Structure of Integral membrane protein:
Amino acid sequence: MNDGAECPPPRPAGTGATLELLVHGVGGATPEHMLDDPRTVRVSGDDTAAVFRRADDVEAENRPTGPATDGRPVPEAYVWCNLTSGNGARALWLLLLPFMVANLAHWMRPSAHDRARTVRLYGLLVRLVGLSLTVLLVAAACEVALDLTAWQCAGTRACAERHTWLGFLSPTASGDGWWSPPGRRLALASLVPTVLVGLLWYLSRRTWSAYESEQPLVREPGEDTARSALGRPGFWYGRRLVARLRGAHTAAGLLTVAAAVVRATARYDRGTGGPAALQTLGRLLEVALVLGAAAVVAVICRRGRSERHLDRKLDATLVRHLPLGALVLLVLTLVHACWERPGWASDGRLPGDAAFGGITLAQGLLVIVLAVVAHLLYRSDPDPRTAMRGLAGPAVALLACALGGVMSGGVSQRVADWLDGTRASIPGAPVVLTWQASVIPPLLVVLLLFAAWQAWRTLRLARAERAVVEQDYAGEADDPDRTRRIARTRAMATLTDRGPLFVAALSAVSLVLGTAALVGAMTTGRTPSDAARTTHPFVHGAADTAQALGSWLIGFGFILFVTLGRRAYKDMSARRTVGVLWDVGTFWPRAAHPFSPPCYAERAVPDLTWRITTWTRSTGGRLVISGHSQGSVLAAAAAWQLTPAVRKRVALLTYGSPLERLYGRWFPAHFGPAALAALHDEVDCWRNLYRVTDPIGGPVQVPAGDGPQVDCEPMRDPLAHARSDLHPLPAPILGHSDYQADPAFDRERGRLLDRLRPGLPGQRPGGSL
């Protein structure tokens, strides 16, 4: 899509062209399935995302008799599944899950009126939480590579002999090679976290170019009339902010590596009274690191996204010079570490406890302040449907920090066990990380109890729902087993509405256990099992079991995580299982963390906007955007981006839509009641289909006002309760799928098209459709 490309001139109105633009949802779909035809042709797009038509409809607009002789619109499928799925290597994106969760917290802020400064403060706090996660990740890599491997294991005879690949680093090896001194070992090992930072920078830059670099359609001045932030010209083009954050986080990662090295060398130089030149250089490096950290924080504190206009500028000084300066400082630190220091031997641990404890404490304070700010925003515009009364963002930010802490602690503990096992020849991972890994078993116990409680509630609801099912299918043959199955499906579908309760419970337990772990590590200075050694044998045994079990659970969880991710990207059924949360997480632009997985909507929404605008201008015809599940969210976002003249030729048909049930509750500032009501006013006509058996879709609950009602009556599912002449075989319970198989779908689509009369905008009747 070329910048500023001109739309083709409109044809005379009233050509009779009618188009249905289908947008699939979670799990993806093939164009053959969407168009119900084995012969499809790509009419626009590439291998990543494209628009397809049936082979017989490629030139439908040029037919003398019109594009659809049977009265139906020409179907056209927009296939975007390759934006979120692909080869199994993309499963590694799951390792960036804490970054994605933190980015979600940015978009979960409550809606507010006349609170611009408070809104900016909310965004700033989330960006600082994201920065702390980057520092935590790199610090964990430093712990594994520098402390556990190069400092402890390579510096210990027993550990180094068990791992022959560390022989050239061991000072006890024959001849004590050039890399044997502790400083040089640290300098060499620092390449591992440095490469990790470089890989994150590369992936962020590459995914931006591949997924998010498509510029939205350029509008004329005065065409921005949407009342939602999603309709602003620059909402789906955050290049400037992502580039600035990428530079700041890259610099922060490099500075973290440099700090891990210089902390050890400077401490030794001061403690042993080394050469004055080395001590002075060490102090200068420490001062430079502090100044560099201050510069990074200052960049993070700058204004966030520029949404009111299409911002193509780049802060070249920050994007290039800040990471380059951090890299130069790291090189100087490594040169300083490689200096000859006779008599220096590695002993104990590197000073990591204070660093990890400080990161955890800072994250806790940021989340607390964020909760206060979110509460103030919620009080300015309260809405009972908002998840957790406006505290969803802080809760999710806390979960991101907890997930990062557990992953860091678990990986460090597993590497320590792998290097040393039960021999206790090396001190092992920092005490703080050991405590964090030890809270996993009690956390899982609490979650299992919560799951059992929810299962009991669902069972009771299913029993109560049987009477409702019998009433809905009154007059049909009685089938108790069928009734129980339908009631159970309806009860299971309500679990989505209890998501806020689950997140609240999980975040509360994580906060309590995380605080206990931090206090235990800081007050005792020992691992859980060592701290409980002098207490009752049962307490000591429980602490020892939690410590060991937590370490193994992290290792098992890591393998399960990657395996599930690979299967989700390659197997359609597994993708549907985890696709909801993943597609919600990667729908939003990277506004808080540049290393989170790429935002597919920054490609999909401009694609849809360009296609709708160019087709309506070139044909003067009518168009229905038909969105299923997550496709309905993309359709709504594209409708917001359209100009008023184009919106008057467009109808919106959503089905199985999470617009209100998920997005409206969790992202009230952008999909709350006010935003959806504005969309209803701006789009000429909109209808929403849903089923009570659908665990994802639901009503959008937009008040009718002066226009028609958006929500239809709930669709029957299944269509028949028992066998009949019309349904000789049992009708399936469809739930979230196959909305187009219901006769109500064609009926509602036809009524939408009837309101979009050729040649003039549809008029809003006073009653319902």
In short: The first strand starts at residue 18 and ends at 23.
